[in-house]
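Lab manual, section 2.4: Encoding a predicted structure.

Procedure: take the sequence of the chain (52 residues), apply the prediction step described in section 2.3, and record the output as structure tokens. A sample record is shown.
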Amino acid sequence: MPTPPGEGSTTAGISQHEPTASKAWAPVALVLITAVVVLVVVGLVGMVVALA
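Recorded output:
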């Protein structure tokens, strides 16, 4: 004999979908990350040159 279905979810249908992030932010983030990496590399190279 099959088992009857259990209770339905008590949270079904109450959550709202989160808005997706704009695709326009991806290039901005990439540029900012690249700029920070370049600044760190320049600083490290400057420290090495100062030691020499």
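Check your result against the sample. The chain has a mean pLDDT of 81.
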